[in-house]
Amino acid sequence: MIKSIREAFPALGRPGFHYLDSAAMAQIPGMVSETIAHLNRTARSNVRRGLHEMARRADEAYDGARDSVGRFLSAPPEEVVFTGGCTLALNMAAWGLGCALGPGDEVVVSRLEHHSACLPWMALAKERGFALRWLGVTPEGRLDLDGLGAVVTPRCKVVVATHASNVTGAVSDLPRLAEAAHAVGAVLLVDGAQMVPHGPVDPRALGADLYAFAGHKAYGPTGIGVLWGRAEILAGMAPLVVGGGMVGAVEDDGFTLADPPHRFEAGTPPVAQAVGLAAALDWMGGLDWQAVHQQEAALTWHLLDGLRGMDGVRIVGPLGLEARVPVVSFTVAGCHPHDLAHLLAERGVAVRGGAHCARPLMSALGLEEGTLRASLAPYSDRADVDALLSALSEAVAVLR
User: Fold this and answer.
1) Catalytic pick among 118, 156, 335, 357
2) Which fold has domain 32-285?
3) Is 357 a catalytic residue?
4) pTM of the model
């Protein structure tokens, strides 16, 4: 199965190259690249209100892409907003909810969050005067849900949580978070960037009210993201960006907003990128995810087991396979993560070293230098993990 999956990714055909950096950027199937190229050859036109043939084709492709994303999320297309990426989607959600908040209100953000999820709220809290409260983490790098009741109070309006950590790989208990948020009338905003690459997601069934993810981590192109939201939540949100295509009427003294999702898609949308993302999600929909998850689990365990046997290695995150995605972070005593990443790259192994845009988590875990992170995908195989472990042993020997 893995062989057939790997064959869909032209970049993985290089001899001696082992890609274990999918949490930062997943590789793209050849058919997705071709889908984008075909659109640019046959339907390169702006969408909305064009009457010529290329405009009609572009409209059909863009609307079809929204339908595909909706199917992947088990959601109606009217709840799917295309954005320029997950960072923009999370900023749009923060602005749309946060501009109505003020002194006396509270927003809860977890320490597992990527900067894209927490920084917008930190900036808005300073501007709007509401309080920001932090949900802590356990030593294993999971959300400290035992502390949920202490931070989610009747003043809480929004709870922000990652679905899966980009550092520890820990998967959050969204139903429990949703229960706590909804009990006080708060909205649950979820960063799904690290979860979506590992199979279809139903955010509504999990209790989320808003859910964001990125195309480039889900085997699609860069410059595209999605913000899904319950229709009633989107209807009450203000747009972050205004301009063409997101208004109903415009008069000298004001304007009316179009209905969602269009009110959040001002200007020329990323048409080719949306079509490419839809092709990637359709490709994902054709995989046997039970088999993929079994393979990812086996490779993750092989990696964890190999790291456990190395002197001076500290695994940052869950030590087992329960409730995790195949993202594994670790440190090596006496070795800086950047130095290790450089030496591994020289040996054909692509990983990432640093704080991974998660400084609040690094501070909570006492990891000021960050970690080395290996992240797997459906196209990863045992040879990739073996190459990492072998190259790591060599790199550590050089640095020590």
Assistant:
1) 357
2) Aspartate Aminotransferase; domain 2 (3.40.640)
3) yes
4) 0.97
